[in-house]
Write a structure and sequence with these properties.
By secondary structure, the protein is mainly alpha-helical. It has a single domain, classed as ABC transporter involved in vitamin B12 uptake, BtuC (Orthogonal Bundle), CATH 1.10.3470. It is about 75% helix and about 0% strand. The chain is built from 14 helices and two strands; from the N terminus they run H-H-H-H-H-H-H-E-E-H-H-H-H-H-H-H. The chain has a two-stranded antiparallel sheet with strand order 1-2. Strand 1 and strand 2 (about 195) form a beta hairpin. Helix 4 (about 55-80) packs across helix 13, helix 5 (about 90-105) runs antiparallel to helix 6 (about 110-140) and helix 5 crosses helix 12 (about 275-285). The chain is globular.
C-alpha cells in the first residue's frame, strides 16, 4: 500500500504542482487588489469573463497564446538539454524576417506551397540564429546565456534597419513597417483573430512530446540535461545533440514569428512582439518543460494578460497587475518544484 501511494504521488505531483502554484499566486495577489479599493473576487470574475467569457474574448486569448506556445516550446526544448536559450525573442523576429522576405511578393506560389515554404524559411532562420551560440558553446565554451541574450538586440537592430530601409512599405505614410504579406502568404482564420497557427503550435507540441518520450534523441537530451558527464561517459555525442537541440529550439521560435506575421499582424514591425520570447521562459517553467503542459501554460498566461486588460477597463485597475500575477505564479512554481524534488528524494 505504501508503495502504491508513493507511485501515485510521483505521478500526481508534476500535474498538481503548476495548479497549486497558480492558485497560490492568485491568493497572494488578493491583498494587492483589495488595497486598490476593489473587490478581489469581482476583479477575478471580470478577468475570467474578459479572457474566456465570449467568443471574442476566447479568440483574443487564443491568438495571444499562439506565439507563447511556440516560444515556450523553444525554451522547453533547449532547457531540457541544459542549453539556456534566452534568445527566443531574437529567434522569433528572425522567423518574422524570413516570412517577410519570402511572402511579400518576391515569389509567386499557390498557398499550398507558399505557407510550407515560409514556415520552413522561418524555422531555418530561427535555428541558424541559435546555432551560432551553440557552436561557440561546444567549441570554445562561451556561455550561451550571454550570447543568446545579446543576439536579441542585434536582431532588433536588424529589424529596425529593414523596416526603415530595404523592406520599408512606401504606402505606410512614413510609419516604420515592412511591406505587407501577400494573400497567398497568410494563414487562415479559425475564430475571430485566432488563426491556423494555433493548430500548428499544437501539432508542434505533440511532435516534441513524441520526440521526448519515444525517440532516441529525446532520451539523449534528457540524459545531457540530467548529467552531462555521465552522458558523455555513456557514449552520447554531446556536441552533436546540443547543436541539434539549438537548431530545433531556434526553429520553433522562428515558426512563432512566422505565424504572428502571417496569421495576425500581416507585416513586420518593431512592435511585433511585446516580449513573447522572454515570456516563453515563464511558460516553459510553469509547464515544467513538458511540451503538452506548455500549451496549457501559454493559454493561462495569455488569459491573465487579456483578462487584465478587460479588468483595467471595467474595474479601473492597473493592467500591470497581470505582470504581478504571472511573476508570482512563476515564483510559486519554483517553490513547488523545490518541494517536489524534496518529496521525490524522501520517497
Amino acid at each position: 500500500m505504501n508503495r502504491f501511494v508513493r507511485e501515485r504521488l510521483s505521478f500526481l505531483l508534476p500535474v498538481l504542482a503548476p495548479l497549486l502554484a497558480i492558485v497560490t499566486a492568485l491568493i497572494l495577489c488578493l491583498p494587492l487588489i483589495t488595497w486598490t479599493g476593489v473587490s478581489p473576487w469581482q476583479s477575478y470574475g471580470v478577468m475570467l469573463k474578459g479572457a474566456l467569457g465570449s467568443s471574442f474574448a476566447l479568440s483574443e486569448t487564443l491568438s495571444r497564446a499562439t506565439p507563447l506556445m511556440f516560444t515556450g516550446l523553444s525554451v522547453a526544448v533547449a532547457f531540457r538539454a541544459r542549453f539556456w536559450n534566452i534568445g527566443a525573442e531574437g529567434q522569433f523576429y528572425a522567423g518574422a524576417i524570413a516570412a517577410t522576405l519570402v511572402g511579400t511578393g518576391y515569389l509567386t506560389l499557390p498557398p499550398v506551397l507558399m505557407m510550407p515554404l515560409i514556415l520552413l524559411a522561418g524555422f531555418i532562420f530561427g535555428g541558424l540564429l541559435l546555432l551560432l551560440p551553440a557552436l561557440l558553446k561546444v567549441r570554445i565554451q562561451v556561455d550561451e546565456v550571454v550570447t543568446t541574450l545579446l543576439l536579441n538586440f542585434v536582431v532588433l537592430l536588424m529589424v529596425s534597419y529593414l523596416v526603415e530601409g530595404p523592406l520599408k512599405d512606401p504606402s505606410a505614410l512614413g510609419w516604420p513597417q515592412a511591406m505587407p504579406l501577400t494573400a497567398q502568404a497568410t494563414l487562415a482564420k479559425l475564430l475571430g483573430r485566432t488563426h491556423l497557427g494555433l493548430i500548428l503550435a499544437i501539432l508542434s507540441a505533440v511532435l516534441v512530446w513524441i520526440m521526448n518520450s519515444r525517440a532516441v534523441l529525446g532520451y539523449r537530451m534528457k540524459a545531457i540535461g540530467a548529467n552531462i558527464r555521465a552522458a558523455a561517459f555513456a557514449g552520447i555525442p554531446i556536441d552533436r545533440v546540443i547543436l541539434f537541440t539549438a537548431l530545433l529550439s531556434g526553429g520553433l521560435a522562428g515558426m512563432g514569428g512566422v505565424c504572428e506575421v502571417s496569421g495576425l499582424k500581416g507585416y513586420l514591425s518593431l512592435d511585433l512582439s511585446p516580449g513573447f520570447g522572454y515570456t516563453g521562459i515563464i511558460v516553459a517553467m510553469l509547464a515544467q518543460l513538458h511540451p503538452i503542459g506548455v500549451l496549457f501554460s501559454a493559454v493561462f498566461i495569455a488569459a491573465i494578460y487579456v483578462g487584465a486588460d478587460a479588468m483595467s477597463r471595467s474595474a479601473n485597475l492597473p493592467s500591470y497587475l497581470a505582470d504581478v500575477i504571472v511573476s508570482t505564479s512563476l515564483l510559486c512554481m519554483l517553490v513547488s518544484i523545490l518541494v517536489t524534488h524534496r518529496l521525490r528524494r524522501w520517497k
